[in-house]
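Q: How would the C-alpha cells look for this protein?
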Amino acid sequence: MRMQAAELFEQKIKALEVARRLRVSRKSAYHWHHLWRDGGVEALASRGPSGSRCRLSPRSLEKLAAYLEQGPAAHGWVEDQVWTAARVATLIGRKFHVSYSVSGATRLMHRLGFSPQVPARRVAERDERAVTAWKVATWAEVKEPGRPAGVTSASKTKQASPESRPEDEPGAGAGTPR
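A: Here is the predicted structure in C-alpha cell form.
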C-alpha cells in the first residue's frame, strides 16, 4: 500500500486524496508523504515483519515440534493427551531455558502447525448418555424460551416534535422553554 502511495505522490496527488483512494487514515497518508518527500520511494519500502524475533533457533524449533509430536504424556502430563499453551510454555522453559508467555507459546504453536487444545475438565465417571438425555428432556423445560420470529422489528425513527402531539398527551407543549 505504501508503494501505491508513492506512485500517487509522484503524480502530484495530495496526501488527503491518497488517503481517500487507498482507504487509509489521513495521518498515515501525511506520514507516508513526509517519508516519501524526504527519502523517496526507498523510504516507503517495507522493512520486514515487525515484532520481536523468535527466541528459539531453527534447530530448537525442530526439536520443539518433535517434542510436541511425542505428546504431553512423554513430558510428564499423564492426566490427558492435550497440549495447552501453558504446558507448551512450560515445556519450552524446561527444554530450552527460554521463557515464553502463554500467548507467545500459542503463536509459536500455530507457527509450527499445532493448535493448543483446551482440556475439558470432566470426571472419569461422566455418563455421556445421561448428560445427553438431560439436555434433551430437562434443559428444554428449564431453558428460557426465546422470542418467536417476527415479533419485533427495527426501523429508524425520528421523535415527533412536541408541537405535533395532541394537547392531552404527555409531553404536549414541551417545546416551550421553561
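The chain has a mean pLDDT of 81.

The chain is about 45% helix and 0% strand.

Upvote if useful.
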